[in-house]
Design goal:
By secondary structure, the protein is an all-alpha fold. The chain has seven helices and two strands; from the N terminus they run ααααβααβα. The longest helix is centred in the middle third of the chain and has 21 residues. The protein is elongated. About 25% of the residues are buried.
Amino acid sequence: IIRQLFLSSAVAGGGKLSFADLKQVITKYSNTLPEGALRKLFELVEKDTKGRMSYVTMVAVANDLAVLVADFRRIDANNSNTLSRKEFREHFSKLGFEKKSVIDALFRHADEDESDEVGFNEYVHLALCLLVLRI
């Protein structure tokens, strides 16, 4: 499916995707991905000086996004479509974050609407920010 979407979207770009193309492809799966974080990720992983992304890079980005969706579903133990502070802490503890103060700071950063829960959009935004920092 990703290959078909890539080929149908990359025809005008000589076999590579612009950011607008990537955004269009991603919204076919989900319209909830934060544009700012996605743009930053695109700029960091895009190696072509003409502002276009190759198929191999797109597959890597798509795989990372698929992992985010799967992680969120797994972490959301009560299937509420949000992560409680407890679910969030347990997940980040398992990832190796040892200090509660660091996990709480990540939670506050992720909880953009201050609902004391982290929704999928907020989780993706945080995860993309952490992914960008990793790169």
